[in-house]
Predict the structure.
Amino acid sequence: MITMKTMTINLNVWRQENSDAPGKMVPYTVEDVSPDMSFLEMLDHLNESLMKKGETPIEFDSDCREGICGACGLVIAGIAHGPKRACTSCELRMRQFRDGDTITVEPFRAKAFPVIKDLVVDRSAFDRIMEKGGYISVHTGSAPDANTMPISKEVAEKAMDAATCIGCGACVAACPNASASLFTSAKIAQYVYLPQGAPERKRRALSMVQQMDVEGFGYCSNHGECEAVCPKEISIKNIALMRREYVKAALDAGCFQP
Amino acid sequence: MDAQKILDARIPDGSLEAKWSTYKAHMKLVAPANKKKYTILVVGTGLAGGSAAASLAELGYNVLNFCIQDTPRRAHSVAAQGGINAAKNYQNDGDSEWRLFYDTIKGGDFRSREANVHRLAELSVNIIDQCVAQGVPFAREYGGTLANRSFGGAQVSRTFYARGQTGQQLLLGAYSALMRQVDSGRVTLFPRREMLDLVIIDGKARGIICRNLTTGKLERYVGHAVVLATGGYSTVFNLSTNAVNSNATAIWRCYKRGAFFANPCYTQIHPTCIPQAGGYQSKLTLMSESLRNDGRVWVPKKTGDGRPPEQIPQEERDYYLERKYPAFGNLVPRDIASRAAKSVCDEGLGVGATGFAVYLDFADAIKRMGELIIRDRYGNLFSMYEEITGNDPYTVPMQIYPAPHYTMGGLWVDYNLMSTIPGLHVIGEANFSDHGANRLGASALMQGLADGYFVIPYTLGDYLAHENFSDASITHESFKQSATEIQNDINKLLSIQGKKSAKEYHVELGRVMWDHVGMSRTEKGLKKAMGNIQEIREEYWQNLYIPGASTLNKDLEMAGRVADFLELAALMAQDALQRNESCGGHFREEYQTPDGEALRDDETFSHVAAWEYAGSSKPVLHKEKLVFENVTPGQRSYK
């Protein structure tokens, strides 16, 4: 389990003082990298050594470090969350790389995700999309017994597959259009599958999609990059479903008058 | 000071089953039109904070909600894996509110309040209803009803779950309710804010000082009450299953403003975590307790048996939990499973590179049920394990070892979840209220949501309706004074310019805590720890180095948290030292039964130890006597 051999890793890291300052790639060499380290532990290790040299450490977001909170998000070697499929930046291990490799590290770039500092970006646009319908309106205390409405195992599993989104934003970072369609569609799909979501179905589809545009996310043009980098392997089929939902709701609301 | 008067838990009269309904029937209400005139500051957006903020806003209060993450959806509740208990008795296996109450009281080793725990059991059923209505996709049977699994310390199947991501799904449920209220304008979110002080005006909690983690500026917020939901303090051990930003600063600063800190020595070391591998590690990863439903825990019978697990025949394996605790087997409570693992490893029977690990083996379960069913139940946990260790648990037994996970101790609160500072309410893991000396699995999610959805909306209203509030604004003298003190502390930390990082000190502190204030404690060890902590603390304020300035600076954030951990650690050791008994997660080697189980001393220690900050003097110990009218504390037996 413990691998004794260590590696030397060369990094090119995006450094940017604040949202207004211009940024640039800065090269670093990290010695004594254990293959069992996570990518972020490798950056911790680099930061400790930068500190010893009196240099400013690299800022990046992370919290749970077990792939569930969605706080971390780096474009590693040109890929959001790095080269391993279905894996967040914090779960990525250095054994994925070889001694002497040069790796670029960049923030999740998108118009709607402005850089705050170095690798830290502002993803609050996602919260504002959720505000516009990413919920079922039920007051605390007003719920019927949980088994009143049976939901088949298959349906519950489909809803869970969509609900597993961690809101990291890799889908946006990977998309050539910086579209938030995978993120938004995952939430819409969860509530389409579950009967509890039915009463607000149309309203939700219209307002969440509209908010994506307001935030400056691009349109989906079916590249599929989002699905490829999603650490929770959320399917692009959700986007197709979201579009159907949106068109149906828009027709109903009379948005497409001749 | 009259300790008895201060520590009035304000438990309602009447029979155990009637207390909560009696309370609700007689509490004072705030008129609907008046609710919007009250501003509530909710700190934290996890299961407790998120559900409280949403529910209070639904009622019509004006809520300001703060979190250190960039969005409320990332609070560390998100990482809870296994499940949430509820006394639904959907399995027809004899569960009831009484049984959940009794299991929780017994699981906590008879060191919690009867009234609080019974209320928790009553509310457990409402939580499941609420979450299902919100669209939480719990696991289901083919017939469409909700599925359950078993957890430690119970002989019924009452745990509801959503794969190995129950915390995530419940948190996203609370987050969705919260975002609905943000849209309605009744909740204002303040992400990337760290609470650094509580502001008290006319003896009441009326405000907080936050550091804006993006700009580094101090910000002042005023309201009519403060609800603290900032989680536990396991990261005092440095390596724990908590998130890297989880910290004790908010509760610690409230303690220093006068809130009593209860049972700081009650910490939970979770039995099934991925063992430590190297000095570079930033955290330890939990493997859900649900794995013990199907996994069997064992070590070789022979010390120093270096053979790979598959070459060790059945008769040379010791399935020590099944042997020692035949009634509960692998599903004994966490404190017992952890100590058992420690004791076999201390005997030299441990496995893995360091000898500090035991096997959790799924071979029998896979043989019996097939890999598909196991994959369905634990797939994401198995892949997480493989990701970290590089080993495939479908073919090789997992290696696990205990790690700090949860803290039962926290700020003292009465039945209404209010601390000793009027207006400061504390909910979820941040308070001490429901788990006694040991928390059972799948009970943390239950408590967080019970407090947030179903308790605080009532009890906070009662408080507001009873009080008269003076006009207060952020220019009040108390705000100025507090902001000045906090700014001075930050300046002082930045000005030390020594040689060692906050992280290095955190590692040192963690080692002391793990060695002497961890799974097993002795008088000698605790005294040694207190000395060591003092030395580290003195050096910290002389030799700390923080790069950069007070802008977005995670090293500065960390430095403030470690400074607080160094103080909290001393209180934990002191509390552990005065509690001359063993109970739940607090195991003093001097006090054990002949077969090595925890030996309580109910005569002397059937109380909550609540500590009052006394500046440069020693903290003052107050006691809240625990009264058992409905259950008889006995020697906990899982045999």
Notes: Residues 237-252 of chain A form the longest helix (16 residues). Chain A has a mean pLDDT of 96. Chain A touches chain B through 78 residues (CB under 8 Å).
